[in-house]
Design goal:
- This protein is mainly alpha-helical.
- The chain contains five helices and no strands.
Length: 141
């Protein structure tokens, strides 16, 4: 990874590069992400609580993919870190990384909600959504 791709939250520059002109598709994808990411984080926590490594790895595989799709690179990297700890059977590290993943997921889910709200009337408006802590809106190209 280069630059600030692993910075917290959704990378709006990369998201725009990938989806500008297809904002309706992005809005649908963000809606699915909201449901699926929340479910997978909940499933992951349940699997880790009972130390079901196969269940945890299944949830993590999904989290890596769906967070990468919405350009939430830090969330994807944290899911990989949890997976690595689970593979090593390092419960303490897995649980610590999962706590960080849950915090990052909260940030990304909040941002996805803000983007979807901005896109409600016109999907192109999502590029003007101010995301707190990330320098505001994506400047027009």
């Amino acid at each position: 990874m280069m630059g600030d791709e692993s910075a917290s939250g959704i990378n709006l520059v990369n998201l725009r590069e990938a989806f500008e002109g297809s904002e309706d598709v992005l809005a649908q994808m963000l809606g699915l992400f909201l449901v699926q990411a929340a479910e997978r984080v909940e499933q992951l926590n349940a699997h880790l609580g009972g130390w079901d490594s196969m269940g945890a790895r299944t949830a993590l595989h999904s989290l890596v993919n769906i967070s990468g799709a919405v350009r939430a690179y830090a969330m994807s990297e944290l899911a990989k870190a949890v997976g690595d700890a689970v593979k090593r059977d390092d419960r303490g590290q897995a649980l610590a990384a999962a706590r960080a993943l849950s915090r990052e997921a909260d940030t990304v889910l909040s941002q996805a909600r803000i983007l979807l709200e901005a896109a409600k009337d016109d999907p192109r408006n999502l590029w003007n959504a101010p995301l707190p802590g990330l320098g505001g809106v994506v400047s027009p190209s």
